[in-house]
């Protein structure tokens, strides 16, 4: 990884976001995940195939067309470059992407059920709509990548997708924002599953998002 100050800063942000996922307890038993952060219009930093105890110098620099420009990737990460690239191409404002097998969210992915937005953290952290499901395809395959592209086109405001029979893909303006949203989604999935046992979750009243935004604006001004 290059020593350019901006690259080093983004690398440290990515490593910290990965650490926070473990602190928050949203990781699967295996700890599997992959994270990336955009460097410019053509390149991004990508985790090397593991995220536990990750260090900045272990990140690889890759191009949107799939070339490893600097560093090394395990084969398990090479095949997911396209999964990250398709999001960066579709969403120029996205600065970071996180993919995990977070257990509760993955339950919705396995069930092929969109995750409704029924908790306030989802409103606050950037997903004021249900999380849609991308049809299954082998990880990194043309089928999977086309499926992600199709859902992003049809759902231009979603900041996350569930990968059917696989896991969760979340994206945001930076690594910290993506991490906060991922935690909010996992907590929401847990709450949905728990609420089912006591009668089921209930939708927000009309105007909830606007009320939350007004509340945030009051304390930010």
From TrEMBL:
What the entry lists under Pfam families is as follows:
Aldolase_II
Query: InterPro entries from the entry?
Result: Aldolase_class_II_sugar_metab, Aldolase_II/adducin_N, Aldolase_II/adducin_N_sf
Domain of life of the native organism: Bacteria
Protein name as catalogued:
L-ribulose-5-phosphate 4-epimerase
Where in the numbering of this chain does the Class II aldolase/adducin N-terminal domain appear? 12-193
The family database entries (SUPFAM superfamilies) matched by this protein are listed as: AraD/HMP-PK domain-like (SSF53639)
**Keywords, alphabetical:** Lyase, Metal-binding
What organism does this protein naturally occur in?
Streptomyces luteosporeus
SMART domains annotated for this entry? Aldolase_II (SM01007)
